[in-house]
Write a structure and sequence with these properties.
The protein is an alpha/beta fold. Helix content is 31%, strand content 20%.
Length: 168
């Protein structure tokens, strides 16, 4: 896809498809904040993956300037056992989000996209674990769209300008 200097930056927003009313409200707040930043928000619905979800997601991610992944609670794993019958057996004390978000995070990192993850309280597996947040993957609280995102915003806008052929 060819872009011009007048095109707006495109953001892929990943979130589980099935949400509680409170989670849906929080998703809408994030969308409103992204749109307030003058970004075009791109979503990939559960029925939009087609026969080859890997190809569909790769093609979509190749056309965006940044990624936001919202880790809403999906699976109550607070009473589960990690690595049963091994020397590392431990009780889980967390919630899990959609496993698709982990795939979206990995593919986004592989494509060198600026990523911001925001998890609902209790979700801290994979990309939502603060221990893995670094230069490319930023993490913030889900409850506060836009908080502590300046570095991510700058990275998205720089990527958009490079893709559009605009010098800063």
């Amino acid at each position: 896809m060819k872009t011009s200097g007048t095109d707006v930056a495109r953001i892929f927003l990943g979130a589980p498809s099935i949400l509680t009313p409170d989670q849906q409200t929080k998703l809408e707040q994030w969308v409103a904040w992204l749109e307030w930043q003058s970004f075009q928000v791109i979503r990939l619905g559960r029925d939009s993956h087609g026969e080859n979800p890997w190809h569909t997601l790769t093609q979509l991610l190749a056309q965006v300037d940044g990624v936001v992944l919202l880790g809403f609670r999906q699976l109550d794993a607070r009473n589960s056992v990690w690595r049963p019958e091994t020397k590392e057996e431990a009780l889980s004390s967390s919630w899990w989000t959609s496993p698709w978000l982990q795939l979206e995070a990995g593919m986004s990192v592989a494509l060198a996209l600026p990523v911001i993850v925001a998890a609902e309280a209790g979700v801290n597996e994979g990309a939502f674990n603060p221990e893995v947040w670094n230069g490319q993957v930023k993490g913030v609280e889900l409850s506060t769209p836009g908080a502590a995102t300046d570095e991510w915003l700058d990275a998205v806008r720089e990527r958009h300008d490079r893709r559009a052929g605009v010098s800063r």
